[in-house]
From TrEMBL:
<feature type="active site" description="Proton acceptor">
    <location>
        <position position="71"/>
    </location>
</feature>
<keyword id="KW-0964">Secreted</keyword>
<comment type="similarity">
    <text>Belongs to the peroxidase family. Classical plant (class III) peroxidase subfamily.</text>
</comment>
<feature type="signal peptide">
    <location>
        <begin position="1"/>
        <end position="29"/>
    </location>
</feature>
<feature type="disulfide bond">
    <location>
        <begin position="126"/>
        <end position="329"/>
    </location>
</feature>
<keyword id="KW-0408">Iron</keyword>
<feature type="binding site">
    <location>
        <position position="259"/>
    </location>
    <ligand>
        <name>Ca(2+) 2</name>
    </ligand>
</feature>
<feature type="disulfide bond">
    <location>
        <begin position="206"/>
        <end position="238"/>
    </location>
</feature>
<keyword id="KW-0732">Signal</keyword>
<keyword id="KW-0575">Peroxidase</keyword>
<dbReference type="GO" id="GO:0009505">
    <property type="term" value="C:plant-type cell wall"/>
</dbReference>
<dbReference type="InterPro" id="IPR010255">
    <property type="entry name" value="Haem_peroxidase_sf"/>
</dbReference>
<dbReference type="InterPro" id="IPR033905">
    <property type="entry name" value="Secretory_peroxidase"/>
</dbReference>
<dbReference type="GO" id="GO:0004601">
    <property type="term" value="F:peroxidase activity"/>
</dbReference>
<comment type="similarity">
    <text>Belongs to the peroxidase family. Ascorbate peroxidase subfamily.</text>
</comment>
<dbReference type="InterPro" id="IPR000823">
    <property type="entry name" value="Peroxidase_pln"/>
</dbReference>
<dbReference type="GO" id="GO:0005576">
    <property type="term" value="C:extracellular region"/>
</dbReference>
Length: 349
């Protein structure tokens, strides 16, 4: 069971919530872990229980929800723009190349929003639902818990072009990865290496892998950084001119567990996509010592991951009277959906 933040810190409560009030946070001063303690004390409970149920039939869902949060935050900040469907005013980010036919979990977010609206109408933003869902997904998969800064508001538009240009590509070199992360506001080497560790669980489609296996950089051969045994395994799963939508585990050792095996895989030439292996196989890269450190010390990786997640969650966050609290995560509120709370404060625009 997932414990609500209204419960005292206990073994289980600390696992999911990180004993929110007892942990310091370096987040945006307007975001705070106790934001919903009084207005929606069961928000973690609702989100966590939905994820637990979904994991029974879809073990990929935790990685998918974390990926949604990443892809949201990298495009104009963590404003739930990735959840918006196409409207008369904008085209959905779901159609952008990095998301089309690969971003998943939208229906799970819809269920969370529906239940939260029943329990706490017009209170919890879709951006915060994504943020909480990513933290709970990591914890339920064996990863670290942390204090989640909350209080984001939802944006009013999607950014199709931004999703096509701002999200890191699986074919990026290390320099391109660094530039992408720095542009987003994550300019520390530890941000890049730690957040890449999210690929310690989840899947990727073969179409993102096959260029490395058969014609890397137009050489008519494989990426030389791939371990030969792993290359044989990947070619069996992803044959040349085969079905590009077949999925491969990012981590062939512990595919559904959030741990530090990802970094050991990189050291062994078993990074699934090019941008992952670049962290270790780029000569003299400043990322190499961090890969080695995170591989040998899970606690150090977990600490770095938590710090980077909090930093990412702060990116261009809308707070206060900015944006709105969407009643449906797929649609910007209409003028007719504007309602006043009992104290007269408008809860959405």
């Amino acid at each position: 069971m997932v414990v609500s933040p209204s419960f005292p810190c206990s073994v289980v409560g600390a696992l999911i919530l990180g004993c929110l009030l007892l942990q310091a946070s370096n987040s945006n001063a307007q975001l705070r872990p106790d934001f919903y303690f009084r207005t929606c004390p069961r928000v973690f409970d609702i989100i966590g229980n939905i994820i637990v149920r979904e994991m029974g039939s879809d073990p990929r869902i935790t990685a998918s929800l974390l990926r949604l949060h990443f892809h949201d935050c990298f495009v104009n900040g963590c404003d739930a723009s990735i959840l918006l469907d196409t409207s008369a005013s904008f085209r959905t980010e779901k159609d952008a190349l990095p998301n089309a036919n690969s971003a998943r979990g939208f229906n799970v977010i819809d269920r969370m929003k529906t239940q939260i609206e029943r329990a706490c109408p017009r209170t919890v933003s879709c951006a915060d639902i994504l943020t909480i869902a990513s933290q709970v997904s990591v914890v339920l998969s064996g990863g670290p818990s942390w204090s989640v800064p909350l209080g984001r508001r939802d944006g009013l538009q999607a950014f199709f072009d931004g999703a096509n240009t701002l999200l890191p590509s699986p074919f990026f070199t290390l320099d391109e990865l660094k530039a992408s992360f720095a542009f987003a506001g994550l300019n520390r080497t530890s941000d890049l290496v730690a957040l890449s560790g999210a690929h310690t669980f989840g899947r990727a489609q073969c179409q993102l892998v096959t260029p490395r296996l058969y014609n890397f950089n137009n050489t008519n051969g494989p990426d030389p950084s791939i371990d030969t045994t792993y290359l044989t395994q990947l070619r069996a799963l992803c044959p040349e001119n085969g079905d590009g939508t077949v999925v491969a585990n990012f981590d062939p050792v512990t595919p559904n567990t959030f741990d530090n095996q990802y970094y050991t895989n990189l050291r062994n030439g078993r990074g699934l996509i090019q941008s992952d292996q670049e962290l270790f196989s780029t000569p003299q890269a400043d990322t190499i010592p961090l890969v080695e450190q995170y591989s040998s010390n899970r606690s150090v990786f977990f600490k770095a991951f938590v710090e980077a997640m909090i930093r990412m969650g702060d990116l261009q966050s809308l707070t206060g009277n900015q944006g709105q609290i969407r009643l449906n995560c797929r649609v910007v509120n209409s003028r007719r959906s504007v309602e006043n709370d009992d104290d007269g404060v408008v809860s959405s625009i």
